[in-house]
Structure formats: C-alpha cells, structure tokens
Amino acid sequence: MSESLGQEIERLRKRLERERRARQEAEAIAERGTRLLYERAQGMQLLYTIADASSRATSVEAAIQVALDALCAYTGWPVGHAFTVTKNAPYPLVSMKLWHLDNAELFAVFREASDNISFQPGEGLPGRVLASGESVWVRDVTEESNFPRGQVAREAGLRGAFAIPVLVGNNVVAVLEFFAREFAQPDQNWLDVAAQVGTQVGRTFEREARHEADRANRAKSEFLSRMSHELRTPLNAILGFGQLLELEDISPEQRDSVRHILKGGRHLLDLVNEVLNISRIESGHMHFSPEAVHLGDVIRETVDLIRPLAAQRNIPVIGPSTNVDDRHVLADRQRLKQLLLNLLSNAVKYNREGGSVNVECTETGGLIRLNVHDTGTGIPAHKLQRLFRPFERLGAEQGTVEGTGLGLALSKRLAELMGARIGVETALGKGSTFWVEFEVTANPLEVADAAEAPVETTQPPVQPERTVLYIEDNFSNLQLIERLFARRPNLKLLAAMQAGLGLDLAVQHLPDMLLLDLNLPDMSGLEVLARLRTNPHTCEIPVVVISADATTGQISRLLAAGAAAYLTKPLEVPKFLATIDEVLARRNA
Q1: Which residues face 360 on adjacent strands?
Q2: How many other CB atoms are found less than 10 A from the CB of residue 33?
Q3: Angle of helix 525-534 relative to helix 499-509, nearest 10 degrees?
Q4: Which of 147, 165, 186 is the last residue of a domain?
Q5: Cα dihedral sign for 396, 398, 399, 401?
Q6: How far is 328 from 322, CA to CA, in rounded Å?
Q7: pLDDT digits (tens, 9 = 90+) for 444-472
Q8: pLDDT tier, 390 (very low <50, low <70, confident <90, very high otherwise)
C-alpha cells in the first residue's frame, strides 16, 4: 500500500514539474512575443517619425538631424554622425558636421577628428558602406584595423559601431554612423529597421534634387526670356528702319546697301537665336512647323549670306551643279536655313586659305541628301566622337577657331527634330563633307493669281480715321511705328512710355486698338493687359502685344490672357500692317 502511494506521489511530482516547465516556456514565449511586438512597434514608430520628418523637412540637413536623434533614442547609443558623398575624388566622403551627442564634452575630441577627416570608398567604416552599399557592424572599433579613428574612439570610451547607407535608387548619397560605449553584436531586427531608415532619408535627397532641377529650369527660362528681349530689341530698330528704307525711292546703289544691311541684321539675329535655340530644344520649348520647303531658294539664300564671310579668306562658295529648283523637302524652312548656314559657316571656318566650299544634292529612294564639302585638313578619327557635342570647338586648342561651339550641336538637334539625319565623311588632307538627309515631298500647287499679288505696304483703300495707342518705353521703337503710321493717314497714333500713363490715356481716349510692349519700367505688360480687361471702359479694346520675347510659353500666356495678337521683334513690316488691318476690321465688324 505504501509502495503504491509512493508511486502515485512520484507521478504527481513529475506531472507538476512538466506543467511548471510548460508554464515557464509559455511565459518565455509570451515574453519574447511581447518584446518582439514592442520592438516592432518601436521600429514602426521610428520609421514613421523619420518618414514624417523627411516629408516635412525644409532641407536635407534637417531630415538627417532628425534621423540621427531618432536612431540614437531608439538604440540608446550616445553618438550619431553623418557623412555626405561629394564629387571630390579620391576622397568623396566628408563630414556633414551633423551630430547627436549625449555628452558633447566627453566626445569633443572624437567629434573634431571626424569633422576633419575624409574617406575613399572602402576606407574606414563610412568608406566600407559607400563601397558595398550595405550596412556595416563593428563589434569593437578599437580592435578594427580598418578604422583610422581608433585611437580617439578609445580615448572617448567608444566601442561598438554601426553605419547605414542613405540611398537614392542604388546610389549611396550619405552614410550615417552610430557608436556605443559597449561591444555591439549584430541585431537582425535593427538591421531591417536601419535599411528602411536609409531609404526614407534618401527620399529627402530625391525631393531636394527635384526642387533644384525645377529651380534651374525656372532660372533657365527666365534667362532665355530676358536675353531674348535684351538681345533682340536693338535689332528691332536696325531691321525695322532698314525695311522702311526699302520702301523709299532710293538709288540702286543705296537699295543694294540696304539689302546688305538687312541681310547682315537678319544673320546677326540668327546668331543670337543660336544660343537661345540650343537651350529651347533641350528643354522641349522649340516650336517646329514642317511644310514643303523649296530647297533651291533655301540654298541660294544661305549661300548668299555666307559668301561675304568666305570672300575674306578667298574661299569661293559653289552652289549645286544639278537643278534643285523643282525639289521640295519636308522641313521647317527657318530651321532648315539655320541648319545649312551652320554647316556652311563651319566649312569656311575650318577651310584653308584659298580653298573652296561646294554644295551638292543627291537623291535616292525618296530622300534628298544635301552635302556641304570643304577643302580643309579633314578631321582625325579620334576627334570624330567630339563632333555634334555642345561647346566642342575642334582646333580651339591651337587658337585657330572662334565661335561658341554650338553650331554642329544645334544642327544635329534641328535635323533630328525635323525627322532628318545628319552625318560627316572626312579624310585627312582632303577635307570633310557634312551631309543632312531629308524626305522629298511633292511640289505644292500654284496658288491663285490673286493670292500671289504682293502685300500692299503703302496705301490701302481709304478707311475712316482710327486711333491707336502704343505703350512702349523704347524711343527707337516708337519712332519706327510713327514712320509706319505715316503711310496710313487714317491711323492716329498716341504714345505713352510708361504703363501708368498708358492706362490713363486708354480710359480718356478709348482708342480703337492698343499696341503693348511687355517690358515696361513701372509695370509688366501682362499686368497692363489684366487691368485693361478688368476695367469696363477698356475691356473691349483689342490689344496687340509687340515684344522681343519670342518664347512659345510667353506667347501662349498673353493670348490666353486676352491679347488679340502677338507680334515678335524684329517686326516684319508687311505682317505688322496686315495684323493692324485685320484687328481693326474685326473691331469694326
């Protein structure tokens, strides 16, 4: 009986022991689960804090400072520091001088050493992160051979270390490093959280890069608009008065001189536009109007323009030997002329004294190739890859070539945007042939005789008197319009050189039409237009904008704001007078 009781007691003891162990295991599991949930919650809170700070940060530095403080609070580590990646090879990693320090005095020497050191990829803790693109643990930096700051770390009492990459895509843009006063063992949960921290902070870099690009684009657009006005406005007077002289009764010699003035002025305008156009093309703001272009006319015009320059070096420019008068290509006429002029200019510039330039056309399979051949020295094979690049001037190293280095780059972009191909064939000692290949298109039908009649630029049919107000601060431009209106006795011109006065005159006289410059000393033309449209006395007056700003965006803005028409300087006199007639006719309808 006692033996059975003893056995029963033993069974009960073992059962209780099993239950106790099971309970302890369950408690341990529950504790680990609770700890894991807590750590994950802490990690999620950390990521939320950094993500929120990164989205609201006004700068990369502000976002990184939040990340340093938050990560040190999360780990309990006393030191956090940031390096940034620069283009200063071979030591691209430099301190951002951003820190989290629990004790600034204790870690002052280590801070100074870190702020004054830079690293190559693979060198030191930050360099290893830069080279691998991954996080790096160091159990004890004082025993690490690849840690140049080991001595000052030992003096500061630092041991464990950890560094993470800040990534934009696959590129490391910064490295955050953290230090503890005890040995550090890798923690997978910490590794997972840290990887996401680097990605979150990297978004701040991406956003700032986008903002910087936007600022650069805005500055570029403002520069183009300003330069378009500043450079084109003086040409308005040159070409405008030149066109007026063409309308006068002058001798053949004087008419020939005026013709050269206009050709030279328009050529200068083309050169000014070259710098503006290369930027417009790159920003997608270049407007093209493909049409059937008479190839013979374009070749003759550009050859005539380049001959005076070629004559200075005794270089004849020879046009096509084959008849191209009946050939048309699909292109933008203005851009085709600009492209050909660039090729001819280079053919003269890179030619030898007394050489020659030949323009030839060949046609195969619905394509016509325009060849510009020079008798220069040719282009070495190792320099061919530099052709068609902006600001590359072959021969500039010897000081023998002048120019912007934009001609061929602009020509290539113009050709591509018109659906054409451009290339070069060259041989040392024999010269070079630059060619551009266009699609041949049908000869457009002849227009009716009435449509072929020249535009009347002197006296249209007698019309009732009309008042036109011109708001313009450039006296030469005012004189030009006065001279033009002298040919239209039915047009009475009022002038104002300030926007405020112009608005007052508009209310007092209620002109039939208003001509408006945009760059006025006291108010922008856009604001003048807005005030005219909101005033019930002037809201119906048609406004024609006359400006040297020929950017497509500006034209669209003004037309959308209520302008009846937009004319760019330098003025084309026939187009200007036709626009005046058209706007006044609509006004009277």
Answers
A1: 371
A2: 10
A3: 30
A4: 186
A5: negative
A6: 14
A7: 533 323 333 344 444 445 567 899 999 98
A8: low
What pTM does this model have? 0.43
Give the per-residue pLDDT at 178.
93
Strand order across the beta sheet in which 93-101 lies = 118-119, 93-101, 79-85, 171-179, 161-168, 136-138
Contact 536, 494 (CB under 8 A): no
Give yes or no: residues 309 and 426 share one domain: yes
514, pLDDT greater than 50:
yes
Full domain range(s) for residue 506: 457-588
In terms of domains, do 296 and 404 share one?
A: yes
Long-range contacts (CB closer than 8 Å, 24 or more residues apart) made by 239-246: 239/265, 239/266, 239/269, 239/570, 239/571, 240/477, 240/480, 240/570, 240/571, 240/573, 241/480, 241/483, 243/571, 243/572, 243/573, 244/480, 244/483, 244/484, 244/573
Q: How far apart are CA 402 and CA 265, in angstroms?
A: 20
Stronger pLDDT, 3 or 123, i.e. the higher one:
123
CA dist 327 and 255 (Å) reads 31
d(CA 79, CA 85): 20
Closest by Cα among 379, 389, 326, 384 to 349: 379
397 pLDDT band (50/70/90 cuts)?
very low
Each residue's pLDDT tens digit, 291-330:
678 888 889 888 888 888 889 889 999 988 777 777 888 8
**Looking at the domain assignment, is residue 37 inside a domain?**
no
pLDDT tens-digit series, residues 330-374: 887 778 888 898 899 889 988 999 999 999 998 888 889 999 999
Rounded to 5 degrees, φ, ψ at 392 are -90, 120
Q: Are residues 315 and 413 in the same domain?
A: yes
Q: How many domains, in total, are found in the chain?
A: 3
pLDDT at 109 over 70: yes
Contacts of 144 (CB under 8 A, 6+ apart): 125, 138, 150
Q: Going along 280-378, which residue ranges are E strands?
A: 291-294, 317-318, 328-331, 357-364, 367-374
Are 304 and 412 in a shared domain?
yes
pLDDT value, residue 483? 85
- Dist CA 381 CA 375 (whole Å): 17
Q: Is residue 477 within a helix (H) or strand (E), and if so which, with residue range?
A: helix 475-485
Domain match, 463 and 510 both: yes
CATH number, residue 89: 3.30.450.40
**DSSP characters for 63-132?**
HHHHHHHHHHHHH--SEEEEEEE-S-TT--EEEEEEEEES-TTTTHHHHHHHHT-EE-TTSHHHHHHHHH
Pairing of strands 357-364, 317-318: parallel
